[in-house]
Amino acid sequence: MKLRIGNGYDAHRLVEGRRLVLGGEEIPFDLGLDGFSDADVILHALGDAILGAAGLGDLGTHFPPGDERWRDADSAELLRQIVSMTHDAGFEIVNCDITLIAEAPRLAPHRERIRYRIAKILSVHRSAVGLKATTNEGMGWIGRGEGMAAMASVLLQGAH
Taking the complete model, does pTM exceed 0.85, yes or no? Predict the structure, then answer.
């Protein structure tokens, strides 16, 4: 059995007039993340981690910003495609660990719903999906509430 580790990072500005989507779930909030797709920082970071571990490039390679096919795309659907590509490359997802960095809103009320959604997309048990949140303690652009970021790590196993 061959194991591979991947890491991913994504960040987007918060703006008015957009819905907030985190981990494939719409979260009630006054602001949303600005991006070409739905700007789901959690799923973008996770997708990049999976692609990197499988040696399949990155999110921008497969879903380039500016390509009209991906305008306002559902990042959960993009992640499903990434999982399919990963399986086609001979890898299975063992587990993932994700950290959201944001001042608000609180992730706790939505955490289990998001973990369940991600586990279903990845075809893993919910216990294989770690999801945490932290603030930036008021420092920098995240600390001022101007945006959010997420980091993800993933472990794949395969025969290659």
Answer: yes
